[in-house]
Amino acid sequence: MPSLPSLGLRHRRNGRVRPAPRVPSPVADYVVDCAVYVDGHRLEGPWTHTEAVEEVRARGTGFVWIGLHEPSEEQINGLAETFGLHELAVEDAVHAHQRPKLERYDTTLFMVLKTVRYVANETLSANSEIVESGELMAFVGRDFVITVRHGKHAGLAQVRSQLEEDPEQLALGPSAVLHGIADHVVDTYLEVTEAIQVDIDEMEAEVFAPRTKIDAEHIYLMKREVMELRRAVMPLAKPLQRLAEGYTPTVPEEVRSYFRNVDDHLATVSERVASFDELLTTLVDATLAKITLQQNTDMRKISAWVAIISTPTMIAGIYGMNFDVMPETQWQFGYPVALLVMMACCVGLFKIFRKNKWL
After folding, report:
1. 188, exposed or middle or buried, with CB in 10 Å at 0-12, 13-18, 19+?
2. Residues 6 or more apart from 18 whose CB is under 8 A from it?
3. Are 189 and 232 in contact (CB under 8 A)?
4. From the record, what ranges are coiled-coil (predicted)?
5. Residue 333 has pLDDT above 80, yes or no
6. Are 298 and 229 part of one and the same domain?
């Protein structure tokens, strides 16, 4: 039977109740996958991070790829000690909320990428989320790659399987994995921008369609989501350019050309995002102008009906005054004539306003 401390229970010592010491979480609880690759092929068998790095360094070839999902600082410390990760980079990887960047610590690269996912909504509200974002960090060394994910949608299982199906590419080393990750992230940017393009086209058609009511809040919501996408895309350009230009010997020449291709795709995404921002600004202006025009039209209609109603009200008000000497008050046909005059005035004003398109 396990002891009380191992169960996380309290125990007595010298008559005082003290909490049991914390037991560190096993590595398997937060490691998504740990694999050893030699000549582009994955070695069989489950590996711990210490066994994996020992195997690679004993062989003198290959590398380790470890995937983590939202580890705590305590959980990642063991990996940091084994692979010699810089404490500042480890802190960024644990706490997240970083902008895309590329940093070098001795022979280790640390790269941060923002991941995005398009969220379809049947109806939009002020709290709707169209672009869901996450973060992806990568530590790249001579014989290892450690990826840290934050968010539920930033899985790398597809990237790993695609690279494993291409041993020639995977044999290029850890930098090839970094390229695969960057390429996957930028491809999701392209998919998200295509989905947003459809939404903006529908908004544009609705704004410029005649006699349609537009809710400006939906356009502001889309503009807010595009700004979030912009914060993920724009800062990534400089890190990709540095990798393509030979910022570090960790990325060999044969891999740099692949990063140039990713940078080209990112430029396409950046152009789309910039055009979205400009188009949404135009749609906001057009919507406000349309709303103003609609309000002016409504005011003209209200004014026309007020003018029509005020005429019989004026006549009835005059003849409703309690004076003895009033013209036509004793006339036999005074009442029906007054009604006919009221009706004629109302019909005449209605025709005039209808002719001038006020009604």
Report:
1. middle
2. 10, 11, 12
3. yes
4. none
5. no
6. no
